[in-house]
Amino acid sequence: MTFDPADDIAAALAKLRGRRPRPPFGPDEHHHPHGHGGPWGRGAPPWGDPAHGRFGGPARLRLLDALVAASDALSVSEIAEAVGVDQPRASRLVQQSTQMGLVAREPDPDDARRTRVRLTPEGERLISSFRGRRRDAVRSALESFTEAERADFARLLTKFAEAWPRD
Protein backbone atom coordinates (compact mmCIF):
# COMPACT_ATOMS: atom_id res chain seq x y z
CA MET A 1 0.00 0.00 0.00
CA THR A 2 1.25 3.47 -0.89
CA PHE A 3 1.88 5.99 1.91
CA ASP A 4 -0.62 8.85 1.69
CA PRO A 5 0.39 11.81 3.87
CA ALA A 6 -3.17 13.19 3.56
CA ASP A 7 -4.34 10.52 6.02
CA ASP A 8 -1.71 11.52 8.61
CA ILE A 9 -2.41 15.22 8.11
CA ALA A 10 -6.18 14.73 8.49
CA ALA A 11 -5.59 12.70 11.68
CA ALA A 12 -3.26 15.38 13.10
CA LEU A 13 -5.79 18.12 12.32
CA ALA A 14 -8.52 16.10 14.04
CA LYS A 15 -6.27 15.65 17.07
CA LEU A 16 -5.57 19.38 17.25
CA ARG A 17 -9.26 20.17 16.96
CA GLY A 18 -9.79 18.31 20.23
CA ARG A 19 -7.12 20.34 22.01
CA ARG A 20 -7.90 23.91 21.14
CA PRO A 21 -8.20 26.41 23.97
CA ARG A 22 -11.66 27.09 25.32
CA PRO A 23 -13.37 30.16 23.80
CA PRO A 24 -13.19 33.41 25.80
CA PHE A 25 -16.98 33.76 25.95
CA GLY A 26 -19.40 32.19 28.40
CA PRO A 27 -21.45 29.04 27.82
CA ASP A 28 -24.70 31.00 27.28
CA GLU A 29 -23.21 33.33 24.70
CA HIS A 30 -23.49 32.25 21.11
CA HIS A 31 -20.56 33.10 18.91
CA HIS A 32 -19.47 31.73 15.60
CA PRO A 33 -16.42 32.98 13.72
CA HIS A 34 -18.24 32.81 10.39
CA GLY A 35 -21.23 34.87 11.48
CA HIS A 36 -24.81 33.86 10.74
CA GLY A 37 -24.84 30.11 11.29
CA GLY A 38 -21.34 29.30 10.14
CA PRO A 39 -20.01 28.46 6.71
CA TRP A 40 -23.33 26.86 5.67
CA GLY A 41 -25.35 30.05 6.09
CA ARG A 42 -28.31 29.91 8.45
CA GLY A 43 -28.87 26.18 7.91
CA ALA A 44 -27.27 23.15 9.51
CA PRO A 45 -23.97 21.72 8.28
CA PRO A 46 -24.29 19.10 5.55
CA TRP A 47 -23.84 16.18 7.97
CA GLY A 48 -26.68 17.39 10.21
CA ASP A 49 -29.86 15.33 10.19
CA PRO A 50 -32.93 17.61 10.29
CA ALA A 51 -34.97 14.78 11.83
CA HIS A 52 -32.67 14.83 14.89
CA GLY A 53 -31.94 18.54 15.13
CA ARG A 54 -28.45 19.97 15.24
CA PHE A 55 -25.70 17.42 14.70
CA GLY A 56 -23.57 18.70 17.55
CA GLY A 57 -20.57 20.14 15.80
CA PRO A 58 -16.90 19.42 16.38
CA ALA A 59 -17.32 17.72 19.76
CA ARG A 60 -19.58 15.03 18.30
CA LEU A 61 -17.17 14.51 15.40
CA ARG A 62 -14.31 14.14 17.89
CA LEU A 63 -16.41 11.58 19.79
CA LEU A 64 -16.98 9.55 16.62
CA ASP A 65 -13.30 9.93 15.64
CA ALA A 66 -12.25 8.69 19.10
CA LEU A 67 -14.48 5.64 18.79
CA VAL A 68 -13.10 4.86 15.33
CA ALA A 69 -9.52 5.17 16.59
CA ALA A 70 -10.16 2.98 19.65
CA SER A 71 -9.52 -0.73 19.40
CA ASP A 72 -12.55 -1.43 21.61
CA ALA A 73 -15.61 0.32 23.05
CA LEU A 74 -14.79 3.27 25.35
CA SER A 75 -16.10 4.40 28.72
CA VAL A 76 -17.60 7.88 29.04
CA SER A 77 -14.53 9.05 30.98
CA GLU A 78 -12.24 7.74 28.20
CA ILE A 79 -14.42 9.58 25.68
CA ALA A 80 -14.19 12.79 27.74
CA GLU A 81 -10.40 12.55 27.71
CA ALA A 82 -10.21 11.77 23.98
CA VAL A 83 -12.70 14.49 22.99
CA GLY A 84 -11.26 17.15 25.30
CA VAL A 85 -14.44 17.85 27.29
CA ASP A 86 -15.48 17.32 30.90
CA GLN A 87 -17.36 14.19 31.98
CA PRO A 88 -20.87 15.79 32.06
CA ARG A 89 -20.41 17.11 28.50
CA ALA A 90 -19.17 13.70 27.35
CA SER A 91 -22.23 12.07 28.95
CA ARG A 92 -24.54 14.46 27.09
CA LEU A 93 -22.71 13.84 23.80
CA VAL A 94 -23.04 10.08 24.30
CA GLN A 95 -26.73 10.37 25.21
CA GLN A 96 -27.50 12.57 22.18
CA SER A 97 -25.44 10.33 19.89
CA THR A 98 -27.32 7.30 21.22
CA GLN A 99 -30.64 9.01 20.47
CA MET A 100 -29.39 9.77 16.95
CA GLY A 101 -28.45 6.10 16.45
CA LEU A 102 -24.74 6.89 16.00
CA VAL A 103 -23.48 5.04 19.09
CA ALA A 104 -24.74 2.29 21.38
CA ARG A 105 -24.10 1.61 25.03
CA GLU A 106 -23.15 -1.88 26.19
CA PRO A 107 -22.30 -3.31 29.62
CA ASP A 108 -18.66 -3.21 30.63
CA PRO A 109 -17.57 -6.86 30.92
CA ASP A 110 -15.11 -5.95 33.70
CA ASP A 111 -17.33 -3.68 35.80
CA ALA A 112 -21.13 -4.11 35.92
CA ARG A 113 -21.54 -0.53 37.22
CA ARG A 114 -20.14 0.97 34.00
CA THR A 115 -21.12 1.01 30.38
CA ARG A 116 -18.97 1.16 27.30
CA VAL A 117 -19.80 3.04 24.11
CA ARG A 118 -19.31 1.76 20.57
CA LEU A 119 -20.17 3.02 17.10
CA THR A 120 -23.28 1.72 15.40
CA PRO A 121 -23.25 0.96 11.66
CA GLU A 122 -24.96 4.34 11.12
CA GLY A 123 -22.22 6.09 13.11
CA GLU A 124 -19.57 4.25 11.12
CA ARG A 125 -21.19 5.36 7.85
CA LEU A 126 -21.41 8.97 8.99
CA ILE A 127 -17.81 9.25 10.20
CA SER A 128 -16.51 7.38 7.15
CA SER A 129 -18.28 9.87 4.90
CA PHE A 130 -16.98 12.84 6.89
CA ARG A 131 -13.44 11.46 7.00
CA GLY A 132 -13.55 10.98 3.24
CA ARG A 133 -14.57 14.61 2.72
CA ARG A 134 -11.87 15.77 5.17
CA ARG A 135 -9.22 13.64 3.42
CA ASP A 136 -10.33 15.02 0.02
CA ALA A 137 -10.02 18.59 1.35
CA VAL A 138 -6.52 17.87 2.65
CA ARG A 139 -5.50 16.32 -0.67
CA SER A 140 -6.82 19.37 -2.50
CA ALA A 141 -4.84 21.70 -0.22
CA LEU A 142 -1.68 19.62 -0.84
CA GLU A 143 -1.86 19.74 -4.64
CA SER A 144 0.87 22.38 -4.93
CA PHE A 145 3.21 20.49 -2.56
CA THR A 146 5.90 18.16 -3.82
CA GLU A 147 5.89 14.56 -2.55
CA ALA A 148 8.77 15.38 -0.21
CA GLU A 149 6.97 18.47 1.11
CA ARG A 150 3.80 16.42 1.73
CA ALA A 151 5.72 13.80 3.70
CA ASP A 152 7.61 16.47 5.68
CA PHE A 153 4.43 18.40 6.41
CA ALA A 154 2.62 15.24 7.57
CA ARG A 155 5.52 14.30 9.83
CA LEU A 156 5.88 17.78 11.33
CA LEU A 157 2.16 18.39 11.79
CA THR A 158 1.77 15.01 13.50
CA LYS A 159 4.69 15.84 15.80
CA PHE A 160 3.15 19.26 16.52
CA ALA A 161 -0.30 17.77 17.27
CA GLU A 162 1.19 15.21 19.64
CA ALA A 163 3.09 17.93 21.52
CA TRP A 164 0.12 20.34 21.70
CA PRO A 165 -0.82 20.90 25.37
CA ARG A 166 -4.16 19.64 26.62
CA ASP A 167 -6.48 21.97 28.53
Automatic annotation (TrEMBL):
InterPro entries: ArsR-like_HTH, HTH_ArsR_DNA-bd_dom, HTH_MarR-typ, MarR/SlyA-like, WH-like_DNA-bd_sf, WH_DNA-bd_sf. GO terms for biological process: response to stress. It holds the Pfam family MarR_2. PANTHER family: MARR-FAMILY TRANSCRIPTIONAL REGULATOR, TRANSCRIPTIONAL REGULATOR, MARR FAMILY. GO terms for molecular function: DNA-binding transcription factor activity. Residues 6-162 form the HTH marR-type domain. Gene3D superfamilies: Winged helix-like DNA-binding domain superfamily/Winged helix DNA-binding domain (1.10.10.10). SMART domains: HTH_ARSR, HTH_MARR. This is Transcriptional regulator. It comes from Microbacterium testaceum (strain StLB037). Residues 14-55, 91-113 are annotated as: Disordered.
